[in-house]
Amino acid sequence: MTRDEDAVGATLRSLGWPVYVPAMLWGLGQGAILPVVVTSAVDLGASLGVAGVVLAGIGLGQIAGDLPGGWLVGRVGERNAMLLSAAGAVPALLACVFAPSLWLFAAGVFVSGLCGSVWNLARQTYVTESVPFALRARALSTLAGVHRIGRFVGPFAAVGAMAVLGTAGAYWVHLAAAFLAAGTLLLAADVRPAGRPPAGEDDAATLAVLRRHAPLLRTLGVSVASIGALRASRQAIIPLWGIHIGLDATTISLIFGLSAALDMTLFYPGGRIMDRYGRRWVAVPSTLLLGLAHLLLPLTSGPAGLAVIAALMGLGNGISSGIIMTLGADFAPAAGRPQFLGTWRLFSDVGNGAGPLATSALIAAFSPAAAVVVVGVLGLWTAWSVNRWIPRPVR
């Protein structure tokens, strides 16, 4: 190990307890409830269509929480905002467990998404404050990676709990994970370097930050929204295309799992490339690969072809782990950092929410093949746009 690598390892390890362990726990909780929200809604009398809308409430909560979350982090600081998020998740998840009506359940789902938005923003701000620029991409890509690992493990933890507690067991897993994450935060030492004030000492107005950075947000911010749409579309299109070509649920799940496994394992190499060679070396290839994979999807007609395309999508998504957070951290001003990052996350979350909806609408209006071609073209445009709009002084 070189001296540089040893320094990097020590820095990333110092973020383990205050950042990475809580992030993995929170991701585990989210992963535990995602597969069962639709089932719970149906049990309360919802149709499949309405249940899908209830599930979308998690994403809507994240969108609703981005700008207020920036204000909150700016007022109380990152660690306090994460603790408040964990506290807010408790009544939301209890509502999911004990809700006597669909409306109360939907409200609990929405609030859980809102709390997740504040949590994600606070941890991103904390890492941005705590690491030097030379390590930023690795720190943030690792943050995104451990969260994905948690979400991957979450459904398996939920299966064990549901064997004893029924469907409610999944929500109890999220509750337990939130408590453990908050406890870890309380016990962990603050690793912020001396001389860097906590975000809570800054009270920049969100609207002022928006006006100041409007040119960046309407160019690179739109590209960030497109990246979010590409990523979310990938999660929807793999199972939809599998059904379209006649594969059974087990085969589709195995193929999806292959893509998710590649996605989880590539976060650190992607971060290292960004730190060593520049952000473009990940932003452009990853979006280009996702776009090309979508364009090639209509050529597949069996499980082998779909598995190859899913692997390409997992590769493109995996190496780009943390790219949106890293770009946001690069451009965030010292004054008003959490407010800027909240706005930055809003663009990404809108893309995440719009991607599956637009894909489904295109499938309904035209065909699955037409939908994936449109998304593929969006990927090619996104590759061009991030190359065009990442300023040259920022690597």
Could you walk me through the main structural features you see in this protein, from its secondary elements to its overall organization?
The protein has 395 residues and is mainly α. It folds into two domains: 6-195, MFS general substrate transporter like domains (Growth Hormone, Chain: A); 203-395, Growth Hormone, Chain: A, CATH 1.20.1250.20. It has 18 helices and no strands. Residues 1-10 have low confidence and may be disordered.
Please, how many helices? Answer: 18
Question: Describe the biggest sheet?
Answer: none
Terminal CA distance reads 25 Å
Strand content: under 5%
Helix percent reads over 70%
- Overall geometry comes to globular
Task: Supply the number of structural domains.
Answer: 2
User: How would you classify the helix and strand content by structural class?
Assistant: mainly alpha
Q: Tell me the series of helices and strands, N- to C-terminal.
A: HHHHHHHHHHHHHHHHHH
| CATH architecture name of the largest domain | Up-down Bundle
Protein name: MFS transporter
Pfam family, one: MFS_1
Keywords: Cell membrane, Membrane, Transmembrane, Transmembrane helix, Transport
Membrane topology: Multi-pass membrane protein
